[in-house]
C-alpha cells in the first residue's frame, strides 16, 4: 500500500513523490534509486564505520559531496538527501546525522547521534615499527596554530593504538605541549596510517613530537612548518577583488566575452565545438492518486517551444457504458473516460496512456506513460484541464537553447609556442564559488597586465585557457530551480524515471563521464543509475561538456598544466583519482619524480592560497585523490594526465573554518553566504595565479638536476642505499655494470607518502645512474640514447657475512 496520496491533477509547481515501500533492514541495495522529492532536501552528515561501508554507500548512487574526514567512530561524509532518503537509509542501519545546510542555505546544525562500533582482533605480541610520514605545524585563520602528524605502524590491526606527545618549543620538556591519541585511517578495507581526525589546535610551536604505540614501538622526529613560504608582495599598482556576487553561467560568459573585447591584444574567445543540451525541459503534467492509477504526459517539443501551451483534461461522461475517447482542439487535449453500467469511471491509467499515444492528433503533441513503469491497472479520476509546464524558473533572459560554451584564452603570443595552462571551474553545478574564482583570475591577469610586471611575465610567457563554467545547464538549474543540482540537465532515464516528480534526478555527473578509470572500466565512485548524482552517463564521454574539455586539450597540445576547481572542503589533490574497491586496485601512481613535483608545487600554490586571509589547506587533505578523499571513477584530471600527460590538480575550495569558541572545525557547504564565498574565491584565485607561476618556472627551466647516492644501512652481507636529488626528478640506474638508459630501472616511492625507496645489494656493486627532471633536463647533459659515459657512478661496498 502506498503511503502518500497525490491530488487528482496537478502541475509541476507542487509535485510530491509517490512513496515506495522501504526495503527491509537486511536487504542489500547495490544501486539505490534516490528519491527526487524537492521539499525538505538538506545537506546531511553521514557517518560510516570504515571505507568499505563508504564504498557501499557510494555504490547506492547517493548524492555525496566531495568531502570526507575521519571522526571518532568512523568516516564522516556529506550527502544531499530528501527526508524519504534519510528515512530509508536509517532503516538500513546507516548513521545519518544533522544538517549542515538546507535549501535556504541556513545553518541547521542538528544534534548529532553517535554510535560506537567496536571491531576486535587478537592483539599481536611483537613490538611494532613506526614510520613517521609527516609531522608538521601550520597557522590558519587568525594565526591559530595547528599540529598535523601521520604515522604508519607495522602492526596493521585495529587494536594498535598510537599516542603523540610534543614539546612547547626549543628547550622545553618533551611532553609540555600536549598529548593526543591518533586515529586509524583505512581505505577500501586497507590500513593506511594513523593521524589526527583534524589538525590539533596548539598554543606554542613544537620542535619535536614523540609517537608511542601500545605494541611497544616509539619514535621521535622533528616538527617542520607546513606552508607559509615567503611570497613576494604584489606590486603597489596590483589590483584584485573583481567579484561581488554569485554569477549564473550567462553572466559569467558575458563577462568573459567582454574581457576579450576589452583586451584584444592579449585575449580572445575560443568557442568550444559541442553545444550543450540547453537549459530546457519538456513540458509535463501528472495525474493520479497512487502509483497504480497515475500516469503522466510529456510534450513532444520543449516547454518554451510550445509545450507549455498544451493542456489535458480528464472528463467523466454523464452516461453509463461510455467508451474511452480522446479529442484535440488546437493544443487542448480532452480525454473522455470510459464508464461501466453504473456510470462509474472504468478507465485505467494504462488505458488512458495508450489511448493518448494512439490518437494521431494527441500523439503529435505529447506522449503518455504510467508512473515509473507501473502496470497502471488502477482507475483514474476526472480532472480539470491542466496546463503542461517545463517548471523552469529562470527569467527569460536565460536562454533555453543549447548553450555555446566559451573559453577565454589569455597570452601575448597565442600560437601554440608557449606552455599552455588550462583552468576550469564548475563541473558540478551547485558549486557556486568556483566560477567566480575563475572570473577573478581572468580579471587579475588582464587588468594587471599593463600595471604589474609579474603579471606581464605570466601573460607574455604562457598560453592560458580559462573555462569558468563547464556545466552551464546544470548551473542555471542550480541557481534558479534546485540549488543542490550537481549534474547537467540531460535526461537519460526514459519513461521509468522521467515523471515530473523526478525532475531533480536527471543528468550526468560531468566529472564521472571521462574515459580513464571510468565506471565502465570497473572503477569505483560512479554509478550506472540515471537517477544517481554520480551517474557516469550512458557511455564514456557521452556528454558535450566532457567532450569539450577533451577537445580543448587535443586542439591545443601545448597545454601541459591544468587545474579543476571544485567545492567544498579545502583539498588539494592530483592523479591518480580512482581505484577498484576490491583490493583497492589503483590506477597507476605517477612516478616518483612527478609525485615529488606535485608535493613541491603544492607548497608554493597553497602558500599563495594562505596569503589572502591565512587559510591553510591541511597536509592530510593534500595528495592523490584516493589517498585523501575517495575513488572518483572517470574524472577529468585522470583523463588529461593519462591521455595527454597534462600535470593536473584539483582544488576543493571552502576549507573548514576553525571556531575558537567550540574548538571545532566547521564545514562551509556548497553555497555559503557570499561574504564567505567571496573570501574563498579571492584566496583560490591566488592559488590559480600560483599555478601559472609554477607553469612559467617549468617553461623557463633549463637547470640540470644533481643527485647523490646515500648509503642508509650497512650490515654483514648487505648494504642499503637510496638517491638524493636537489629538485623533483626521476633517477634511472643499473646494478649490473651496464650503461643506464631510459629503459633502465627507475627509482620509485617506498610507499604512499613515504619518500624514495631503499635499494639493497648483497655484494659489492658499482651503481650507475642519472637523473632527469620534470622539464626533461638530464644530469650532466648525459644523453641516455647516445654512447657517452658521463653518467654518475659509485661503488657500494658490502661486508662479507661471518
Task: Summarize the model shown.
The chain has 802 residues and is α+β, with helices and mostly antiparallel strands. It is 19% helix and 29% strand. The strands form 10 sheets. An 8-stranded mixed β-sheet has the order 16-24-26-25-27-32-28-31, with helices on both faces.
Q: How does this structure look, described?
A:
The protein has five domains: 31-102; 130-225, Immunoglobulin-like (Sandwich); 249-277 and 398-700, Aminopeptidase; 282-387; 707-796, Sandwich (Immunoglobulin-like). It has 13 helices and 40 strands. The protein is of the alpha+beta class. The strands form ten sheets. An eight-stranded mixed beta sheet has the order 16-24-26-25-27-32-28-31, sandwiched between helices. Mean pLDDT is 90; it is low at 1-37 and 106-124. Helix 9 runs parallel beside helix 12 (636-644) and helix 10 (592-613) packs across helix 13.
